[in-house]
Batch of 2 targets.
Target 1
Amino acid sequence: MKRAELALATALALAAGCPPAARPPASPPAAVATAPVGRVIARPSDAKVIELRVAFEAGAADDPPGQQGLTYVTALSMLEGRAGQVGYAERAARLFPMAASIGVHVDREQVVFSGRVHVDHLAAFYPLFRDVLRAPAFDSADVDRVRTRALSNLTQDLRGADDEALGKEVLQAMLFEGHPYAHPELGTERGLSGFGPEQVRAQWRRVLCAGRVRIGVAGALASELSRRLEADLAGEPGESGCEDARPLPPPSSLATRRVWIVDKPEAGSVAISLGHSVDVTRDHPDFAALALASAYLGQHRTFAGRLMQAMRGERGLNYGDYAYAEHFVQDGASRFPLPNVARRQQYFSVWIRPVRPEHAHFALRFAVRELEKVASEGIGQADFERIQRFAASYFALFAQTEQQRLGYALDDGFYGVRAPHLDALRARFATLTRDEVNAALRRHVVPGRLQVAMVAKDASALAERLVKGDASPITYDTEKPQALRDEDTQVAAHPLGLSREQVNVVPLASMFR
Amino acid sequence: MRARPLAPALRLAASALLLEASSLVGVPSVHAAELGPFPKAPEITRLDNGLTVVTIPWASPGIVAYYTLVRVGARDEVEPGHSGFAHLFEHMMFRGTERFPEQVYEDTLQSFGADSNAYTTEDFTLYTITAPRSALARVAELEGDRFQHLSFDERQYRTETGAVLGEYNKSASSPSLKMWEALSELAFKSHTYRHTTIGYLADVQAMPNEYAYAKAFFKRFYTPDNATVVVAGEVPHAENVALVKQHYGGWRGTRDQPTVPAEPEPTQGARRHLDWDGMSAPELLIGYRASAFAGPGQGKLDAARVRDAAALDVVRALLFHPAAPLYQALVVERQQLLALDSYAKSWTRDPGLFVVNAELKDDGPGFEAIEREIQQAIDALARGEVNADRVAAVRSHLRYGLTLDVETASEAADTFAQFVAVSGSTDALEAYLGALGAVTAEDVARVAARYLTPQRRFVITLKAKPRGGTP
């Protein structure tokens, strides 16, 4: 028999404790959050590995102004700090012989804790997992340690050592300027020094709480375990202070192209990300069409996409070129998406992996031209049939593990979709018509709104070339078919339509400051 | 395949589940002997032409993993100026044949929604396909064709070298690539482990002019005696063998055996510092010249080497896992390090490196203080200051970990292939599990004393230059 749904005592509505930023506009008072029915998923089986997945509808978008990074530090302090009477070292020592794991991933609107344990050790594991969520201590030493590492990850890893990730975050900063999505989950330099353990605890109570939770359990005893976990999470901190997710302001209605070039003198090649916000999430009738179109343009790390075939395959420009209908994070070392990075507002994007500096202008022109072509002319019949067949089968590989299956099920709840997303998506792929996909492209892919993020050395010179718009021919050290050469000539002269005001050189140190 | 039973001291008692006040139904626990990545033993057949076929029974409804292992890697790149060719050739394997030109190959895989990729290491190259079970016969046909009849022209070759350069460039913003290059050169003077898998930048840049060398590479190393087909899924072994015989039966050839220079035993360690133009926390990369997994003979396991490999994995967990006292002291309590790690599953065919990587804080103790503390912890193990209970905990961790880590048909195929790759033997995984179960505190002390000494230690340190100038 199912246990009673989670219920919370009346919480105090939080007053806006911080001065309102210029954007977003003031939010209505926080409402008490009550977890609705249907937020618990159990997938019982005879599997000996127990999988737990607890997703909070919370993330970097919940960081208060001046405290960017607070949610990230809160979540990581739960994972790597004392919980109940068990310190981090002791918990690690207890988990160790079981080879059990507790992990966390933080995104803009979801924080997901995952647990994996062999059924032999479930009795010893469960209290540890439960207390990470229900009884974190937020000792100063743990919070400070996590914060220090986050600051290093932000300033030295993201800014310094990963131009591809930096390009993607800069794109989001452009698309969501002044919006709760603008900063990375890690936060900002100033934001990370804007809070202490008290604010961390308060954030836990506000957003990583029962009213925002969805629970998934798979394996042996999943039904019983899911009910137990649901009941346990209804306690601390669910009793008071749990806020509903606040309404989001709309993304800036950016009607013109812009380019931000992050000036990085030591960059040996140029990382490029481009895209724009879209009003399409998984529950939108056009989502399947847009996802199929994105697969046509560049299914992540496959040769199915037009950009990959043309830019890497035919021209050897770089390691890969992909397109996405929604926010995408790769799941570990696989080529498949990580679940539970859902958002209420999405963006369409293209990722051009680093190109040689002398090819950057050409590569950008190529991608923009392809987007303009596909938005205006659509996908041809043969390509449509090919990508339709491919995607209808390929997407079945996205949920091979129980953690992935649970993740997708939890995301179904986030988006309010009734049918399991991947099954429905694949079924819809099979029935879509070319006209439907092309119509969706015309509606939602608007090349004139493209925002472009680049990470490059000699940024000013690159900016100058983009604005000036002179031809940027490409040379090869091998013969190419004439048809390709002819296309290159067109690409090299393709107008990007960028005025000086539309191209900005951004100092590296100013990003996420 | 069932792992050999663990020693009685390690056998896990069956336990009913108790969760505080609740009374959940007890579930029979799994006997420790049943722990391991594969619920059922793989079946193995070696064909007359030398090709090995492995079937791993795996519950993956509708999905099959079809992996092809070729035992060629950076190790085999003995000719100067040709580092990175095993990896480049991995790229070339997607450029088609006369029967299935590259676009036809790609379109065919796409038509049934297969996921197709590959990767290369210092010792092997692994081609990975995950596809619908219904497409197995077609996959075998495609793969059998390209492994025998790969055909690419110079234009295709030169174009692909651009992608390889792009792959080098995408990693170049991270200091890791430079540190690994430096460590490899410092630790090895003769052996081809001296260069990284992707190769020296100069060699990668020169690749466009090496078409003939690349063509020859295929004949030299892509031979049936050097390959293993590993299929994981709900497929009878007889069906796999029949398909492989049908599509690979005519494959002939014997692997080239380049003379890989032996690396002399080190008599003293060395260190090198790198100044980094970009931003980075101070980084420390230590490589101890360690053991090999493979036996000296082709395809033969050396029990002593397998035992050393298992014992070193125990050392790794004892010192560098987040549960380890050293990790807790340096990263958590004193917060002198931002990160500390040592890489699991890093066995190599020839004597390779036991690697430790640390990310320091700008305002923390310097490199040498951290190195000293790491070495002191190792030396304590070498002196026999090894807690037997902790060793037992590590063994349990590693064995349960094998079960938890392998979740899909793809991971099952990958795990098995890696063991074959570094050993040349399809018995390697079972041998490793057996060795792991038998590691004692004495073994831990022995390998620490034998391999993890300052005389065998090679150190790379990296620090960012102050912005705007040289240090």
Target 2
Amino acid sequence: MRHSKDKQISALLEECTDMMMSGTSLVACLECFPDDATELEPLLATVASVRELRPVPLRQASIASNSRAAFISEVLRLQEPRKAGNGPASRGRRLSAAPRPATPRARPISLVAILLVIFMSGMAISGSITLAADARPGDLLYRVRTVSENVRIFFTLETETRNELRAAYRQRRIDEARTIEIQRLADKLNLRGLIESFDTAQ
Amino acid sequence: MNLLSWLVSALSFVTFGVFKGDRTRIEPLGDQQGLLEEAIRAEPVALGMLYDQYVDRIYAYIYHRVGQADLAEDLTGQVFMRMLEAVRTGRGWHSSFSGWLYRIAHNLVIDHYRRKGRTTFIYIDDAEPVHAQTGDPVRSVENQFEHDRLRTALTKLTEEQSQVVSLRFLEDLSIAEVAEIMEKTEGAVKALQYRAVLALRRVMQQ
């Protein structure tokens, strides 16, 4: 009988504690359970007096800051190469990661970054040169074309091949100049025809 | 333009593939689970974030148990140093991080009391000043003495009773959270809570 009564009071204590933690007053809690108020009241009074201890003095800023700095400094020391073999990898922790190498972790990151930069630069350069193949004087990529031609001549070792390349590029310049001249004449003719058509219309 | 589009796509794909595949990112994930995964791998930023999340709660818990700010600061620092030691040796938390951290704090408080004795006395000149909060210094001193008497009474409970009182009534944790920290069932925590309050009342009446 006493055991079941204790169980009942224990359950009510739990419920009233939750109510008090939500801000309900002790009196209001007791009013919810008038039949058991006599037994509940001293227990809830004890809980209320304990809860008066809750306010905690603010931590001193300088001490808190120093404590944090000491912790961070210890964390950074953890980044140094650690000893292997002590970890419980065999325990199958839910949060465990794959075993990490003992070498500094910054090295793989910088290597990947360097390789990436080289790769992307190569892609950018080769793409530009390919696009510049049809560039004409005045186009944005024409400069890329002429520079690539000069680079190709520079890296050609045999003198004969070099001379052939120079001749080919010289001929290309002449062809480009002729093309530009023809285009200018054509534009002029088109413009003249346009003006004549205006005069005729008037 | 087809070639240009191909070039841009290729560069984007390469960039995405490299960064997506890079497991050595430094910034921790936004969610708590990701943060804990980063921390168990000793990522400095993640460990710093966990420290900032929990330091005040652990300090408050220890302060409630020992009643002295300097001592609480010292023990709080030790809690996080033990956390780092566990991360370093691979003996970190298995399930609940907060539960694990509170257990470290609890053990440090117990060790402190075992070294120093269950009741600590300080010279009146070394006592922290009592500030009159209500404007009535007499009432403030009476309140302070009552609080000190209560703290002393808490030290006379068993370790488990003292812990459940602190976690439930001072830290405002739920039964489920306390059960996780104390590694007990919720029913066991409720029963322990009831016995703790009865015992505390008996001690206060002595």
